[in-house]
Design goal:
With 246 residues, the chain is of the alpha/beta class. It has one domain (5-184, 213-239): 3-Layer(aba) Sandwich (Rossmann fold), CATH 3.40.50. 47% of the residues lie in helices and 16% in strands. The protein has eight helices and seven strands. The protein has helices at 14-25, 37-49, 64-78, 101-129, 141-144, 151-171, 196-205, 214-225; strands at residues 5-9, 29-34, 53-58, 83-86, 132-137, 176-183, 236-239. A seven-stranded parallel sheet has the order 3-2-1-4-5-6-7, sandwiched between helices. Helix 1 (14-25) packs parallel to helix 2 (37-49), helix 1 (14-25) crosses helix 8 (214-225) and helix 3 packs parallel to helix 4 (101-129).
């Protein structure tokens, strides 16, 4: 990935930070975008200390104008946009009968509209170069409804899977592949929204009997971004320890 410019959204911590670090270790310039700029800068600084290249920028993926402006800035400063990883997402541990309109709209603004905004803004540079990789982070909950996932989170991640396939079809002629990774339970701050009992039950339900580490998700993303995955598009890669097999 030497010379590739990678944008990872929601990369100030957890899975996003692991993805940015992994791709930087493979030679890419990782652009870490997140609402929390100080935390994003900390991730970028760590990548640089490790010998990689990184840049941190603040961006709200749900704001189309802000996304367009930030993506244009990245293309100008870095010379291209080669790889986009849509990782930014939010969740609420809300019982199904208690979901408010505000929660529903906010989840879809970030998890669904955010993915669309970023894909749309990255298309120009990718189509011009006739090469690109887009990887959207979905979830097992988007396939199964999720036994302990909120209804609006599950619905938003199902929408990500559908968008992945739509973008894959529309961009194939331009040499741009679009895939998704669907993690199961992962050891991140989002998992801390669950009670200890729910976390234990989640681990017990997984054939490998443990939650994934962020680095294990990052390795899967790195594969889909690589030349080795050049003939894979529209795929949803399950990375869940066997919890979902289809």
């Amino acid at each position: 990935m030497n010379g590739k410019v990678v944008i990872v959204t929601g990369a100030a911590r957890g899975i996003g930070a692991a993805i940015a670090g992994r791709l930087a270790a493979r030679g890419a310039l990782s652009v870490i975008v997140d609402l929390a700029l100080p935390a994003a800068q900390t991730v970028a600084d760590e990548i640089v200390r490790s010998g990689g290249r990184a840049l941190a920028l603040a961006m709200d993926v749900s704001d189309r104008r802000q996304v367009d402006a930030t993506m244009a800035e990245i293309a100008q400063r870095c010379g291209s946009i080669d790889i986009l990883v849509n990782n930014a997402a939010i969740n609420y541990a809300t019982p199904i009968e208690d979901v408010s309109d505000e929660e529903w709209e906010r989840i879809f603004a970030v998890n669904v509209r955010g993915v669309y905004n970023c894909c749309r803004a990255a298309l120009g540079p990718m189509k011009a170069r006739r090469w690109g990789r887009i990887v959207n982070i979905s979830s097992s909950a988007g396939k199964t409804g999720g036994p302990i996932s909120s209804v609006h989170y599950s619905a938003s991640k199902a929408a990500v899977i559908s968008m992945t396939k739509s973008f894959a079809r529309h961009l194939a002629d331009f040499g741009v592949t679009v895939n998704a990774v669907a993690p199961g339970a992962v050891e991140t701050d989002m998992a801390l929204l669950l009670s200890e009992d729910d976390r234990r039950r989640a681990a017990q339900a997984i054939p490998l009997h443990r939650l994934a580490s962020p680095s294990e998700i990052a390795h899967s993303v790195a594969f889909l971004c690589s030349d080795e995955a050049a003939y894979i598009t529209g795929e949803v890669l399950d990375v869940n320890g066997g919890a979902v097999m289809d």
